[in-house]
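The instructor's notes for this session suggest beginning with a concrete chain rather than abstract definitions. Hand out the sequence below and ask the class to guess, before any prediction is shown, which regions might be ordered.
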Amino acid sequence: MQDEIRTTDYAAEVVADASHAVSAEFTPDTGARLRKAALIFAVVLGALFVLVSIDRLIKAHRVARAAEEAAGAPPLVDVVTAQPVGAVQHLVLPGETAAWHASTIYARVNGYVAKWFVDIGDHVKSGEVLALIETPDLDAELAAAEAQLQAARAQVLVRQAEAQLGLTTYERWRDSPKGVVSEQEREEKKADYDSALARLKSAEADVALDVAHVNQYAALAAFKKVTAPYDGVITTRDIDIGNLVTAGSTSATTPLYVMTQNDPIRIFVDAPQSAADDLLNNAAPVDVQTSGSAARQYAGKVTRTSGAINPLARTLRVEVDIPNPKAEFVPGMYVKVGFGLPARGLVQVPAAALLFRAGGPEVARVDQDGHVSFRPVVIGRDDGSIVELSSGVAAGDHLALNVSSQISEGQLVHSRPADAGPATAGVRR
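After discussion, reveal the predicted structure:
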């Protein structure tokens, strides 16, 4: 093993290296090179600063020049072309369906629900029994009234016998020979007879009163059967077996059923005041469209109107009645109702083309040279987004939309079609 160990001079080399001195001196050209590098860096930095300053100055001049050009350039406006109104204007308004009859059925007697026979969605016939109500209190009152009636009738028989006896006695004393009985006794017998007649009439009146009480309770007992007032559909059921029900229809009383008759069905529409005159005397067909289905055409007139304008909304309530044998409509549906109105104005424009000023409504007309002129107009019919004008504008006129108050009469403007993209510079030719 010792033959494999090799000797090295590593220790001697380490001692030799450690014994040499380390030099800290720079070469003669080191300082010059550092100064030259610093000078180059400063020059480059200064050049960059000058370039950035020049670029900012150029951009600032460009922005200022663009601002001056924009301030001096004609303002940009969107324009539309006034369109002629056709022979018939189709006015489409939202409407809501309503049942021909809608009834909330309450209990007429106090009691407990014994049975119910129909549920929501069931079609019922007029007079069909919807539910049965147990009325123990009413039954007892009816039985007592009938017993009272029987007693009153028996009392009539007693009074009839008394009256008959009084009549016989009076006739006997009246027809007796003179001197046998005194006049005083005759008068007494006559008074007894008259009293008997009066008691008989009182007993008969009591019978009539008791008959009325029996009829009253019998009529109420008939309401133990809750029946349908007409052919219709049950839309709400608020009872169950054993529920206590109270007679009446106050806010604290729970109804038994709600039912509707949906054939025909009513459609109510609130029409704007501008269309009120036409709808009061309208013979055009009515188009009704429900969401998600195709429009259905119904020829006929407006069935009826409220005949008065709502002072809050300035609308006219219009009713359209439509046959509904297939139950295509149900109460409470949102529908679109179209009316064919006669054209009375000259042209129609978007509502955004109107300016409302102290002198009345105006439009801003843009001529072929791009100059604006303000013209007063008369509104023939206002349908919300579209306005029909009866004077002041001709078909084909170009009108500015949403004109700023800073644009004055005769001012030059840039124009572009309302539905176009970015405007091109220059005046429309």
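Then share the key points. DSSP finds five helices and 25 strands in the chain. The first helix runs from residue 10 to 19.
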